[in-house]
Amino acid sequence: MLQKSAALRHYRDKALNTGYLFFYSKTLMTAAKLDVFDHIGTGSKTSNEMAQATGTSEHGIELLLDALAGMGYINKKGRRYANTRHGREIFLKGKELYIGDILDFHEAMWEGWNHLEESVRTGGPAQRHDMFQKEKEETRTFIMAMHNTAMGHAEKLASLVDLGGSKTLLDIGGGSGAYSIFFCKANPRLKATILDLPATLEVTRDVVSRYKMSRKVSLKEGDYNKCLPNGFDVAFLSHIIHSEGEAANTALMKRIYGALNPGGKVIIQDFILKEGRTQPCFASTFALCMLLFTEEGRTYSFGEVKGWLRAAGFKSIEWSRRSLPRDISVVTACRS
Ligand SMILES: C[S@@+](CC[C@H](N)C(=O)[O-])C[C@H]1O[C@@H](n2cnc3c(N)ncnc32)[C@H](O)[C@@H]1O
To answer: How many CB atoms sit inside 10 A of residue 58's CB?
Structure first.
């Protein structure tokens, strides 16, 4: 009776494993919260030493460390635990490829995801937020989390996108400034202006000066839903359209058209869906995250984005998929 096809067994196992995936993410988030990786540091530690360093029980931390070693995020030799060669690059504070801020942000989002059923029932957000602008610490966590993800591929994106000798770029909702920094590094004649909300820009200022790019990258306070400065060769917007509804995005594209010089280009980086809006899977799942945390945001198909761009007057609208993390892709269009 239970002799079912291999395809059914595979499908069933996949569903079972999906149910368990949160074990892994919560383990990693807890390790980050307890500063496990920094406490291990560049040497090695026993579970007893780690219990003292993190203020935890030896039994509990030993199980956590074994699970992390099982996942390959730390090494275990005898009774001692050490960071891996790659772990030292991404889990230790201060490293350029650090991901601890996004792990902290996931921990903060965990609470919201507990309300998914409620959001699906009501069709509205479980938690209203103001783009994390009210509390300084919250703004920093959010923007540095975005910075962690941007650092995964900002340099690669800047090398892939041809700015064709452009001199000015407007980075709309530019966050930490990671993309502007790498666009300017890859295009020596380019200067970038980051338009963002005031609390965000306090964090941006620190990042831009850490990269010694303050002469190339300037900051401007503003609300992209109200007005944009003009006279730019390129407008770049990364992970902006998914926070907004269709009407706001339609209006934003018109505003961007007005902000560009004739012949200018808009570059939109986001989780763009194929028609049918189910794939890529990360993009269709990310729409739920926007249901939870925004008023009208979701992810959009290329057809939808193309419709807004066309209505604004843009031409040569193209969608390029360049194997970026989490199936992020890029839509470009030109102003005549
Ligand atoms: C999801 S983050 C993306 C940051 C950055 N573009 C990136 O991809 O890493 C959204 C950014 O838009 C900014 N933002 C949100 N609403 C805005 C508004 N109405 N006007 C200007 N900036 C806004 C936020 O402060 C934040 O920096």
So the answer is: 14
